[in-house]
Amino acid sequence: MSYPSSVQAITISKTGGPEVIEKREIPFPKVAPNHLVVKVQYLGVNFIDTYYRQVEGVYPVSGFPFVIGKEASGVVVALPTDESVLNNPDYKKRGYKEGSRVAVDYLGSHAEYVSVPWNTVYVIPESVSTLTAVSALVQGLTAISFMEEAYNGGLGLLMTQLAKSRGATVIGTTSTPEKAALAKANGTDHVILYKSEDTVARVLELTNGEGVHAIFDGVGKDTFESDLIMIRRKGTIVSVGNASGTVPPFAPIRLVQKNVKLLRPTMNNYTYTPAEVLYYGNALFSLLANGTLKTQVFKEYPFTTEGVKQAQIDLTSGKTTGKLVIKVSD
Known about the structure:
Blueprint: E1 6-12, E2 21-27, E3 35-44, H1 47-53, E4 66-67, E5 71-78, H2 83-86, H3 89-94, E6 101-105, E7 113-117, E8 121-123, H4 130-149, H5 156-165, E9 171-174, H6 177-185, E10 190-193, H7 199-206, E11 212-217, H8 224-230, E12 231-239, E13 261-263, H9 274-289, E14 297-302, H10 305-317, E15 323-327
Parallel strand pairs: 9-10, 11-12, 12-13, 14-15
Antiparallel strand pairs: 1-2, 1-4, 3-5, 3-7, 3-15, 5-6, 6-8
Helix pairs in contact: 4-5, 4-9, 7-8
């Protein structure tokens, strides 16, 4: 098919605050023989978008202008042209067709069209909408893969739902009574308001002084020392985010006191091979279809410079609940 010569994309021309975000026209992405081309309908907003944008961010930027974003959903408009891909048994299992509704986990996805390797694209079943898919993809795949391969535990609304479906007792921390009510509604057994309660003391009280079996920590630097106190003997700490900054270097000998296991995984190393992508994608969409996992969209933002700026400001304010999405097209 013929493609437009250019697309609108959300970019940064330098690192900095939200003010460096700009919607601009860029050349149509290069279409490699092993790529699918997707017309984007929705974008998911995630903390990793801000990590690339920030000065001295967690992740370095390869060059400018840099297209931000890692999560999108839409419709396939072109299939790979590489015969070896088309004949690949793993490719055939996906059932890609022009017109297939798909979700994409690929850096640089915040644009009208994206050209992406086929093995990063998840076919959305008829029972799940493209909006639901984009609101669940990154967090949902993280929840499922971390629970299966890091530990049986949970973080966040989707992880809470999944943990409860597996019989866990969930303790959550949040900042406001409104968020606490939402956490309760999603299955959290005990909610700690960390701004007014002593999280460590409360966790030890709830666990009769033993601590918890697993901690999934998306905050990072500011909470790591508390994690070492709240974890029980032979427990597992899974560092899953850097909201307050990365955990500083520490001596591994400190883990000896309780025989603690410490992991710092990333979802993409659990969804690395075509077989893993298919397995976890099927697991996620099955859980969405049968109601085990339920997404909540906090707000839809317009596909504009100001819309994306506001989405990142809202995300980092700590005042949002649920998923922030950007509507690109119908």
